[in-house]
Amino acid sequence: MTVHAAHAAVLAAAPVTPVGPGLIGFLVVAAIGVALYFLIRSMNKQMSRIEVPREGEPERPESEARPQDEPR
Length: 72
Prior knowledge:
Shape: rod-shaped
Keywords: Membrane, Transmembrane, Transmembrane helix
Organism: Sphaerisporangium aureirubrum
Largest sheet: none
Distance between the termini: 78 Å
Number of strands: 0
Radius of gyration: 30 Å
Protein name: Secreted protein
């Protein structure tokens, strides 16, 4: 008996069971998607708070700058 024939005999004798990610796999992927949504939303909020000086605008002195300790 050759190796391929022996391998085919073992595969034929093995029971056929459907194996898949199932509900737990779907819930894990869905949770990662929800976490990614909130992470991107938070990042966009933080990026919008950054003040970038425009070309042609003089830089403001520190006394005129918005204090960072005040909550919005």
